[in-house]
Amino acid sequence: MRPTMTFLSQDLLDKIVTEGRNLLCKLGVEIHNEAVLSLLADYGARIDEGKKRAYFTQDIIDKSLKTAPRSFTLFDMLGNEAVDLSGYKVNFTPGSAAINILDSVSNVTRRPTSADYVEYAKLMCGMKHIASQATAMVPSDVPEKISDSYRLYLSLMYCEKPVVTGTFTIEAFEIMKDLQVAVRGSKENLAERPLTVFSCCPTSPLKWSDVTSQNVVDCARYMIPVEYIAMPLSGFMAPVTLVGTLVQHTAETLSGLAISQLTNPGAPALWGGSPAIFDVRYETTPMGAVETMMLDCAYSEIGRSMGLPTQAYIGLSDAKHLDAQAGLESSMGATLAALAGINNVSGPGMLDFESCFSLEKLVVDNEICGMCHRLAGGIEPREDFPSLPRFEELLSEQHLLISDHTRRYLKEEIYFPGPVIDRANRSRWLEEGGLTLLERARRETQRIIGEHEPVRTPREVKAELTRLMVKEAARYRMDKLPVTG
Q1: Which tens digit of pLDDT belongs to each residue from 99-133?
Q2: On the chain, which terminus has fewer CB atoms closer than 10 Å, C or N?
Q3: What is the pLDDT of residue 478?
């Protein structure tokens, strides 16, 4: 039996959804995109042009929920199925768009470079419990206007896994779409075998900017999956209660779903988010707070009740280093996400309120993800009945170390972590160097990066990716990229 957990009774869930729908119809949503306002008006929404506000109808909401896919699959660079976003399937991906990196040598926070990003992409190839990569950090050695497309380019050049990404501008979408088409060969092939998920973020409370709403429209047109990342802050930009915050999150996410489905019915999407409580003592938005994790799990219940696949920023930490707090918050979040059955869990590698990435933490988090996958597998009988023969053998041999049953099910039943997790006795631990967690993580990071194999993408596809990226950089007076594949 797969272990699961819930936070909402059916009655409470229904009330939250009803209230969220009513907010859309009675208070509306501020949308700074004339084309999107026109689209909504075409389907019956009342538009207040002066306030740039759209008042939805229940029919628009129902229509959007009816056409939104109940699941979808992401495919890797080679076109193989890689991420199953359905049911209670749990997949992990790193957090995105960190503006800092925790330096592996000095253990000091600094701005990331292209070289850091390449190391990250290579490391991701060895993270066997993390299904997709993300455009995890923003390289500081390229112009801001190409930073979105450039990090997608580097991800595609150095790792075969699908990518969770996004753009902070309208203009960058075109090149980011073209990079994906270059991999797949055509727009039709890209629609059939999605390679990326784009994060699209409404602004709390109840607002879509010109850029983010246009991103939703553009992705829908090309059937590029999106994840709606509503970010209400309990007690600041949302009601202080978790229920009130969930009502707001529901309304904001439904508004994004409507824009997507009215643009292109059937466009794939994840019911996602990154809500948080607001810690008034420090004026921060702690992602490692237990209430933030509760919000994530609860809104995933709401998304699943509507028949939609889900996403959450959970399993990350607000700590500044790879320390006990980082382990506590990350493992607790990842465990709750696994039990809640969140389909795409964004967070591994992230520190400091989603602003800092750590390669060593990514390696440790990969083991946390492995443990969570085992947890989600539950407890099942494996030739355990009748039990008498097994215990007769145990009494006869005085152990079951080499029994057929042990050899058949050992690796299936027991999760064995890699060298980052210490399970040796003290004497052996001392003989092997007495390394700390950070030292073991550094060693494993260097090993995986050093053993990286080039991606198996055809040479002509790599050449086309580089041609597109160099051409895009030239638009912003950059005649040479810091790194090309």
Answers
A1: 999 999 999 999 999 999 999 999 999 999 999 99
A2: N
A3: 93
137 Cβ neighbours under 8 A, 6+ residues apart:
97, 98, 99, 100, 101, 112, 116, 117, 120, 151, 357
Burial of 262-280, coded b for 16+ CB within 10 Å and e otherwise, reads bbeeebbbbbbbbbbbbbe
pLDDT per position as a tens digit, 28-41: 999 999 999 999 99
Residues written for the chain: 485
Residue 94, judged by CB atoms within 10 A of its CB (0-12, 13-18, 19+), counts as: buried
* 3 state SS of 253: helix
Give the DSSP H or E segment for 208. Answer: strand 207-208
Q: What percent of the chain has pLDDT over 90?
A: 99
- The helix-helix angle for 172-184 and 459-474 (nearest 10°) equals 170
Is pLDDT above 80 for 469? yes
0.70 surpassed by pTM:
yes
Assign 258 to helix, strand or coil: helix
Average pLDDT over residues 239-256: 98
Q: What is the pLDDT of residue 483?
A: 86
Please give the backbone phi and psi of residue 281, each rounded to the nearest 5 degrees, phi first.
Answer: -70, -35
Nearest to 143 by CA among 481, 432, 378, 375: 481
**Cα–Cα nearest to 124, from 357, 338, 363, 355:** 363
Q: What would the mean pLDDT of 54-63 be, rounded to a whole number?
A: 98
Query: Distance between CA 134 and CA 402 in Å, rounded?
Result: 42
Nearest to 89 by CA among 72, 67, 76, 103: 72
pLDDT of residue 19: 98
Q: Please name every residue paired with 253 in a beta bridge, in sequence order, or none if there are none.
A: none
Q: Are strands 344-346 and 91-93 parallel, antiparallel or unpaired?
A: parallel
**Burial status of residue 148 (CB atoms within 10 A of its CB: 0-12, 13-18, 19 or more):** buried
Residue whose pair of structure tokens reads 């999107």 in the numeric block: 36
Other beta carbons within 10 Å of 44: 13
pLDDT tens digit sequence for 146-204: 999 999 999 999 999 999 999 999 999 999 999 999 999 999 999 999 999 999 999 99
Q: What are the chain's domains?
A: 67-377 (3.20.20.480)
CA-angle at 397, arms to 393 and 401, nearest 5°: 90
Q: How does strand 207-208 pair with strand 163-165?
A: unpaired
Closest CA to 38 of 193, 213, 195: 213
Please state, in angstroms and rounded to a whole number, the distance separating the CA atoms of residues 208 and 228: 11
Locate the DSSP E strands across 80-183.
Answer: 81-85, 91-93, 100-102, 109-110, 133-134, 163-165
